Structure to design on (117 residues):
């Protein structure tokens, strides 16, 4: 299996090239490079999820966040991509979970208050 690990200089060069060209090949390489991050975030979040939420679904939702992070990342801001992407991936997962949840948050809060009482 091919290794996709990059050192910091290579990574910065790759990001600059991607931002300049929007090359699909470079984007795909970045996706392969950071897919383990998506799986890591999904794994952390799956621990606190109910049994009806599948790990693979979380990974799928996280992939949307990774793509969004790749498209919006600005290497000139001196923020590591992993840090930026982690937030975007978590956000995408939670956004998707909220979208598919049929029970409104206000009612959940009220239900918890009743249970606690």
């Amino acid at each position: 299996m091919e290794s996709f690990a990059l050192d910091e200089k290579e990574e910065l060069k790759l990001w600059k090239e991607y931002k300049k060209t929007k090359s699909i090949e470079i984007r795909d390489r970045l996706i392969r490079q950071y897919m383990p991050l998506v799986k890591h975030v999904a794994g952390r979040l799956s621990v606190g999820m109910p049994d009806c939420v599948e790990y693979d679904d979380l990974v799928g939702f996280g992939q949307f966040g990774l793509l969004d992070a790749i498209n919006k990342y600005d290497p000139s801001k001196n923020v590591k991509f992993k840090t930026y992407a982690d937030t975007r991936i978590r956000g995408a997962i939670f956004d998707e979970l909220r979208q598919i949840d049929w029970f409104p948050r206000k009612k959940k809060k009220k239900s918890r208050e009743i249970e606690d009482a």
User: Anything to note?
Assistant: The first helix runs from residue 8 to 21.
